[in-house]
Amino acid sequence: MTDHVPDLTGHAEALLPDGARTWWNQALARARDEGPEALPELFPALRRRIGTTGLSAGMFRETPYLVDLDAWRACDAAGHVLLEAAGSHDGPATDLFLRGDLEERTIVLKAMTLRPISPDTIALLGEVQRTNTVRHVEAGVLDANLAVRALEAGGPMTGFSQDDLHRLVLKLAFLDLPVARAYGVLDHATAELSQMLEDFAQEREAAGRPVWADTWRFLGRAAIATSRERLAAGLAHAQPEVRAAARDGVQAFGDTDLLKQLDA
Amino acid sequence: MRIFEPHAHMFSRVTDDYERMALCGVRAVLEPAFWLGQNRTSVGTFVDYFDTLLGWERFRAQQFGIHHFCTMALNPREANDDRVNADVLAVLPRYLEKDSVLGVGEIGLDDQTPKEEKFFAEQVQLAIRHDLPVLVHTPHRDKKKGFERCIDILKESGIPMERVLLDHGNEITIKLTRDLGCYSGFSIYPNTKMDPLRMSKIVVEYGVDRMIINSACDWGVSDPLMIPRTIVKLQQARVPDADIEQLVWKNPIAFFAQSGRLQENDLAWPASADLRETFEGNSVLRGQDPAALQP
Ligand SMILES: [Zn+2]
Questions:
Q1: In this predicted structure, what is the pLDDT of residue B90?
Q2: If pLDDT is split at 50, 70 and 90, which confidence band does B191 have?
Q3: Which residues of B are less than 8 Å from A44 in CB distance?
Q4: A101:B277 CB<8 A
Q5: How confident is the model at residue B295 (pLDDT cuts 50, 70, 90)?
Q6: B interface with A, Cβ–Cβ below 8 Å
Q7: What 8-state DSSP symbol labels residue A211?
Q8: Burial B21-51 (b: 16+ CB within 10 A, else e)
Q9: Contact A44/B47, CB-based, under 8 Å?
Q10: What's the topology of domain B3-293?
């Protein structure tokens, strides 16, 4: 059984610029009539034709999706609608991404966060994992629960493993993006991941560079040998966001002495 | 003086060229898809090249404040090559819809073969279908006859002449193109074909209406600073600044604005790119501290 795909047509059409209606109607008709074959000529024009006005539609919560539509633009919603209208859940998205410019790639990745997990999703999460283009990491895994949906998808859609999630979290650390925006990822903390983050933190400290604040959240949730020491130091850290993350980590860690320090 | 360089194959230039161009006032470059010095043997290498023009090359230019645009096409030389010609035409439509693609080019004639004529005509039709202007490469050998043949094919196609830029012109061809209603392009080279002094004489004689100059810099002996060098010659010839501005800024913008994807206002400021950003994990900084390069 595949998850249903939410219909964003209303959101996209509410923000159509003056004069874009004819193009949009033709684009929708082409996607419906010609299927995925039509998309390579339509996606490049989306930003230009539909525009980048923000959606301001709030949080979309409908199992299995958790997506902040306030992080979407009109052209993202239009891309989602076209993919669905083309009636294929597989294949075209990867091609659109690989042959897309920066905007098309962003639109494709956003659309995946509100579509069922498919081999496309797995392939594109791999691309996100390998890119350092911040906006593509944001579009694919932030303000949405796509990474966790991919991790939890079983059967034929298996392909995004706990290892992949570890690498993705390391990518967030490397780019200094907050894990709170990758919904549900913090619930999949493991000792192995904590160790990876601890090693990265030590590297950064040796170089005199700042450590990713969310490191403290993971080390509190999945304990390793250095967790207690790092959490204790974090509570007195000079950076307020590190102190906040350390407090959150301590609560998950559950050490009585450290918890007492929280009250103090 | 702000400069729109409307014909530069930056793919084959080093990063220092971008910086020198920016320092001389180049605010935007247009990079026509072209022949890479040797024939390609599969459509895949074309596709990768097209993607480079849209991605990495654009990013590289932006890091020096230069806006980067391109035109896409099967070039005339490889129109003769049956290993690639039809396949390249099949992938072009998606590329002709990309935001930074402002036209179809370089198309035209080189050796003036029947195959070149066939793919030239087909690509003019693609331009009409995608509502784009065309950048036409004219032969360097047997130039006058080549120009005349290009003009015949363009007239047959039905494309409006103001959407045509006939490039690589000289003192002879300007007589053919002046009254056609098309834009006349001149590529200025260090030693051969057309030089800054000859160009200034053409401007003095014919004016700047629908005239465009470029460096056509590529792998060969060429110079990305040929527009600035020509500006000096024009000033020495007492050509008013307003005319020079029309030649090196307003005209190329007006021509490529016919794509509907470019407005002069887009170029009001240098392109911005956060130097800390990378493209696909790649940066031109090679370990330098970006903070040191921030203005
Ligand atoms: Zn050229």
A1: 98
A2: confident
A3: 94-95, 97-99
A4: no
A5: very low
A6: 47, 51, 54-55, 93-95, 97-100, 261, 277-281
A7: P
A8: bbebebbbbbbbbbbbeeebeebeebbebbb
A9: no
A10: TIM Barrel (3.20.20)
Pull the structure tokens for residue B134. 């065309």
Mean pLDDT of B2-16: 97
Q: Tell me if residue A66 falls in helix, strand or coil.
A: strand
The answer to whether the Cβ–Cβ distance between B94 and A134 falls below 8 Å is no
Contact A50, A42 (CB under 8 A): no
pTM: 0.91
Residue spans per domain, chain B: 3-293
Q: Closest approach of chain B CAs to the CA of A44, in angstroms?
A: 5
Q: What's the CA-to-centroid distance between B166 and ligand 1, angstroms?
A: 12
CA of B88 to the centre of ligand 1 (A): 18
- Closest CA–CA distance from residue B93 to any residue of chain A (Å): 7
B79 forms beta bridges with: none
Q: A218: closest CA among A245, A196, A194, A235? A: A194
Interchain contact, B99 vs A48, CB within 8 Å: yes
Q: How confident is the model at residue B291 (pLDDT cuts 50, 70, 90)?
A: very low
Give the Cα separation of A96 and A108 in Å (integer).
7
- End-to-end Cα, chain A, rounded Å: 52
Locate the chain B residue with the closest alpha carbon to A47. Answer: B99
Q: What is the DSSP letter of B219?
A: S
Q: What is the pLDDT at residue A1?
A: 46
Closest-CA residue of A relative to B98 is: A44
Mean pLDDT across the stretch B272-276? Answer: 63
Q: Taking 70 as the threshold, does the pLDDT of residue A29 lie above it?
A: yes
Q: Most B CBs within 10 Å: which of A41, A105, A138, as the mutation test of the B interface?
A: A41
Q: Do the Cβ atoms of B81 and B113 come closer than 8 Å?
A: no
Q: Which amino acid belongs to residue A173?
A: A
Which segment of A136-140, B71-75, B140-144, B169-173 scores lowest on mean pLDDT?
A: B140-144
Chain B residues whose beta carbon lies within 8 Å of the beta carbon of residue A103: 99
Our CA-based measurement puts residue B205 at a distance from the nearest CA of chain A, in whole angstroms, of 41
DSSP B11-42: GGS-HHHHHHHHHTTEEEEEEE----SS--SS
